[in-house]
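One record is given unchanged without comment:
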Amino acid sequence: MKIHNKRLMASVAMGAAAVMAFTACGNGGTDGDSASRGFEDCDDDPNNCNFDPNATGDKEIVWVIDGDWSGWSEVHSETMNNYTRQAIQPVFPTVGFWLPDGSWEHNPHVLTQEPHLVSEEPLTVEYNLNPEGGWGDGTPFSADDFIYNWYAWSGDSDLCNEQCQPRTTVYGSNVADIEEVDENTVHVVYRDGYLTPEWKYAVVLTNPAHLAEQYGFEDWKSDPVAMGESLENFAGTVPEYSAGPYRITDGVIGDYIMLEPNEEWTGDGPLAQSIRIESMDDPESIVTEIRQGSVHGASMGRYDPEVIQTLESAQEVNFALTGGSAWRHFTLNVQNEFLRDEALRHAVLTVIDVQHVIDRTIGLTFEAAEPKTNHVFRNDNDNYHVDYVAQAGHGSGDTAAAREILEDAGYTWEDDQLLTPDGVEVALEYRVPSTGADAQTTAELVQQYLIDLGVDASISTYAVEDFSRTLDNAEFDIINFQWTGSPEFANNPSAQWRSDSTSNYGQLDSSAVDELVDSIFETADMDEAAARANAAVEAVVAEAYVLPQSDSPELLVINENLVNVRQNTQTNLNTFYNIHEWGWSSE
């Protein structure tokens, strides 16, 4: 089996309750009318389409992840990415799942019932552990596992040193205590004043505390250095535990994983007796190998239009092109010497023509693609979506309006070169991944918009393996990438925009925005939290920091005989949410 190991795209996840990831933008479509073969019933029955009740699991399934993963940790900002989450899903202690229809169910292997609220003052949530469930080695879940997870996410140097590197501290920093009520009942007690309507979905388990001790970190609970070293060890060690339907028998970071059933799994299935997960980098190669039968399926966040044309004539495969959980956006580095000026930022976001970008890229495969007009809520969210973006004129491509903004702020032009009020020529650099046709087209379009504004605009590429570093070090003036997520929303504004967040890649520093995102965690009422999230969106638009582009697509391609596999665009787990059901057609 030939394995392609050059990477087309990197991605990193963030958010404590809502696992939200970022990815570099390559090729693709966006939310809208879907193209498919073999998945026609998914519109009417998204939870059960492509279903065969008599499916078999005796033949190995080879599945491709269209990117790599850089570790085995859900926590670390450097190792956690969208692909990491998929890679560890078969063994991960998930407390619940988002289903394709947007409903949420608890994981019966971990919990006997859904988490439930004990108190709002302080916020206290009860978890009833399944006494038959556990870590796949005869060890049941315990309160220590909850405590280990709390320390890992805390951001508190008294609990875990800098080696923990949590990608967000929204959950961990707000936990006050973990209480073992009885052998199989655990309470998570939050600090006074902290509230969230999404308490049910918190990530309260990640790694097994007993295994940390077996690895030689017996003092993790009392020594923050030992705690940090233990988490670093988990990040670099192929999981020997399993709280999911499969166990990993062999694997190499960013390359491949071999799975076999976890005999201690208490949920349904698993059906397939052997699954191999591989990392491959090129959509055309992936489709070719699926057609040849050496690979059996993949869900891809990028592709060229030619791939769709190939699939339409390839009767040996089924495919579905549907709106995904990701959304693309332009982020400005507000600490750049020129972009520190709010007026210039407004002009830049105004002169970018989002509809034109869509028409030249993802719109080529999805006619219904449209500009996204809220940073938190999708355009089709009738309950909470408010269009703040178009109201501000951002994404309109209105060069005259952008020039007027600059003129009012004291900017001038000399031979069509934009000058600051101090007479300095304005120059900006757009960063783009070295591969991906849509990414390159987007970069060239933005460059032309900026040139029309009088900006000395350049394009600089980065190697795909350097994507995380490019964001972490804010090595850009303007960049386009995408976040992926779930129906949860409360944590995202804090993670993306708070001044001290490690995921605030454009370095926005606004006390007003900080106050607004913090206020989201002062109510347990969903409607009120949504209103506060929208207030934060409005403030971010006023800062001219991030310009949403559009929702992004997912292209699912499978062997025509592979069943019980379907898109789940409610979560970045996508097809992996029900990996225990995957199998082969009985017909």
